[in-house]
Write a sequence for this structure.
């Protein structure tokens, strides 16, 4: 059961991260803050693998800004492919929430 919940949360995190990126270029710590505020993420270690996955799939563009001292800051934005993928996820999400509402409306909440 926990595996199913974890998988569902991961997909929702994926959708929400793409939603944040759809607004324009975003610095990693700003994404983390928003996702933490929404209680979708607890640790940085959850976001970085997702961003890497998006980058490998050409869904995001990364721009590095060199700062002194310290490592470069990375800013992420959606590619055209990323925007198309987000639109597909949004459509799927809307369909699923409508289906869930239809099913749950026929039975009182537990």
């Amino acid at each position: 059961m926990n595996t199913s919940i974890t998988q569902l949360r991961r997909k929702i995190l994926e959708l929400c991260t793409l939603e944040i990126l759809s607004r324009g270029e975003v610095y990693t710590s700003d994404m983390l803050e928003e996702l933490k505020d929404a209680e979708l993420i607890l640790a940085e270690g959850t976001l970085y693998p997702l961003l890497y996955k998006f980058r490998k799939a050409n869904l995001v563009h990364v721009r590095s800004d060199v700062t002194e001292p310290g490592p470069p800051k990375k800013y992420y934005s959606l590619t055209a492919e990323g925007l198309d993928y987000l639109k597909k996820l949004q459509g799927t999400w809307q369909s699923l929430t409508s289906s869930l509402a239809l099913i749950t409306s026929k039975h009182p909440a537990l």
Notes: The mean pLDDT is 90. The first strand starts at residue 26 and ends at 27.
